[in-house]
UniProtKB/TrEMBL annotation:
Family the entry assigns: Belongs to the sulfotransferase 1 family.
Protein name in the entry: Estrogen sulfotransferase
GO MF term (any one): sulfotransferase activity
Domain Sulfotransferase: 50-313
Biological source species: Sipha flava (yellow sugarcane aphid)
Taxonomy, superkingdom: Eukaryota
Cross-referenced InterPro entries: P-loop_NTPase (IPR027417), Sulfotransferase_dom (IPR000863)
Keywords: Transferase
Length: 320
């Protein structure tokens, strides 16, 4: 990630007024803030523990949802603890310090360095990251801890990411322009297909579970069973029901440990438009919301984008 694409930076800045979030680009690989440089090497070289549980995903794929499921299953469904500690304390986002850029808020102060936070955690560690395969710790391949990878159909992912970038980065462009950047792989974190296929290729490894948002939506009970088996845990029917309740969209939306509201309130960011229901971290939770945003032409463009990139693979997404 040495190469700076000045044109791109300018374009983002002109179009969205993104100030400190998207500066460094490794074309075709990853788009991360300049601060990432300070952390990248440390992340690549960090010690991985065999009993770590990793949750890897592109942003806006339901990773908070899946991560909460993983944490609860591995912590005897301790909902009291789950509700009393922020997600970032229980299951830190590894690269958070870099993503927060120049933010000097109380929250950043509290978290300190997110990589250091993960390094200092007691085992078993629950670690979340949006980094793509080439930027993950090298030791993941040798140590082989359990890794859950979550993904989602690109149309809904893009709609969700658009709202997230407005909420967190004060993005000020049109949805159509954002789609253009998303398809070009020029949104934060970068191209989606390298990210998704990087783990799709590893889906048969015994330490990897590949999950789709649409499957969790269709049948959360089955997803809980699948994740429990992967983690070597057995839950009773009653426990599954209790977990289903804790993970329901309505519970999560009002749960301050997960809905990011306490964190957003501490961060330096544009004032929220409280009357806009889309300006929330846990927003709509639907499959097919793209239909409320995309013209036929744009939808066709996404279908083509997906078809071309998934050609030769057996990966498919539900979009309805
Ligand atoms: P929407 O913006 O489409 O509503 P991530 O946690 O990876 O950033 O993903 C965020 C997306 O997951 C958001 O999608 C959010 O609403 C959705 N989500 C979070 N919790 C959910 C739940 N319990 N049920 C369904 N969707 C959920």
């Amino acid at each position: 990630y040495e190469n700076l694409e000045d044109k791109f930076i300018k374009r983002l800045d002109d179009m969205f007024g993104v100030k400190d979030c998207l500066i460094e680009v490794n074309p075709g690989k990853c788009i991360l803030p300049p601060k990432y440089k300070d952390l990248g090497e440390r992340i690549r070289n960090m010690e991985v523990r065999p009993d770590d549980i990793w949750l890897v995903s592109y942003p806006r794929t339901g990773s908070t949802w899946a991560q909460e499921m993983v944490w609860c299953i591995c912590n005897d469904l301790d909902f009291v603890k789950a509700k009393s500690m922020l997600g970032q304390q229980r299951t830190p986002l590894l690269e958070l310090t870099a993503i927060m850029g120049n933010d000097t808020s109380k929250f950043k102060e509290q978290i300190g360095n997110s990589v250091e936070q993960v390094e200092n955690m007691a085992s078993p560690r629950f670690i979340k990251t949006h980094l793509p395969v080439p930027l993950l710790p090298e030791q993941l391949n040798e140590v082989k801890p359990k890794i859950v990878y979550v993904t989602r159909n690109p149309k809904d992912m893009c709609v969700s990411y658009y709202h997230y970038c407005k909420l967190v980065h004060g993005l000020q462009g049109s949805f159509d322009d954002f789609c253009d950047l998303f398809i070009q792989g020029k949104t934060p974190i970068g191209p989606i297909w390298d990210h998704i296929l990087g783990f799709w290729e590893q889906r048969d490894k015994p330490n990897v579970l590949f999950l789709k948002y649409e499957d969790m939506k269709k049948d959360l009970r089955t997803a809980i069973g699948q994740v429990s088996r992967f983690l070597g845990k057995t839950l009773t029917e009653e426990q599954v029901s209790a977990l289903e309740d804790h993970l329901s969209f309505s519970s999560m939306k009002k749960n301050p440990a997960l809905n990011l509201e306490p964190i957003l309130a501490m961060m330096e960011k544009p004032a929220l438009n409280d009357t806009n229901p889309d300006e929330t971290f846990i927003r709509k939770g639907k499959v097919g919301d793209w239909k409320n945003y995309m013209s036929q032409e744009l939808s066709d463009k996404f279908d083509k984008f997906t078809e071309e990139n998934l050609k030769g693979t057996t990966l498919v997404f539900d979009t309805n």
